[in-house]
């Protein structure tokens, strides 16, 4: 696999120096005046997308052509949109389907993403690297969308205003949680996602009803280290990934290591 995303972050730090500070038993009072580390530079980052960018699969090209002018005005880093394959060819990218498809495989009705094919993304990253501009990747790791199949789920319906409160007895629904990635196969990752890899969904295909459904099963629950909006804001949209599941964590970490 090409590791062309390795230049996404322009890291300017001294890891050994930081570890020494973090592990030091000395008092942290006045640490800002001791100059025991190297302060970050005053860098400028530009957000390289917004909601109304044309869905013409040419955005990576536009950004690449703008690199010299952005460098001239002092831009050091560009925050680019989620570049993984989504369930909708015109989606922004938060409707993420396949982490490992950056516009390489014919999936969900298109090879390229909304922003362009993988080759254009590569050219953008290489052009930025040549100009010493960092690229910040918007990684969407909370959910998956556009599943390939439904599966039977044992769930409880949650109060729409308080997602900690159950408002039904356990029931069985058909949820879109089967991800087989037929267009990619097992290239880059053999992981397939099924009901056990998720904590919640918002659609029952059997009854055609929209609601917040929490999946029941061993060790299944909302995450605790989240906002208390709606009581517990672990669930955001689509099929909510269960980050406590070891297979989910392993696949996300593999993606992060392999692609970055």
TrEMBL record:
What are its GO biological-process terms? carbohydrate metabolic process
Pfam families assigned to the protein according to its UniProt record, in alphabetical order: Alpha-amylase
From what superkingdom does this record's organism come? Eukaryota
Record-level Gene Ontology MF annotations: hydrolase activity
Say if the entry is tagged with keyword Ubl conjugation. Answer: no
Every Glycosyl hydrolase family 13 catalytic domain range: 67-255
Q: Keywords in UniProt for this one?
A: Hydrolase
What InterPro entries does the record point to?
GH (IPR017853), GH13_cat_dom (IPR006047)
Task: Report the PANTHER family cross-referenced here.
Answer: ALPHA-AMYLASE
Q: Which family does it belong to?
A: Belongs to the glycosyl hydrolase 13 family.
Entry protein name: Glycosyl hydrolase, family 13, catalytic domain
Please report the organism this UniProt entry assigns to the protein.
Penicillium roqueforti (strain FM164)
Q: What is the lineage of its organism?
A: Eukaryota, Fungi, Dikarya, Ascomycota, Pezizomycotina
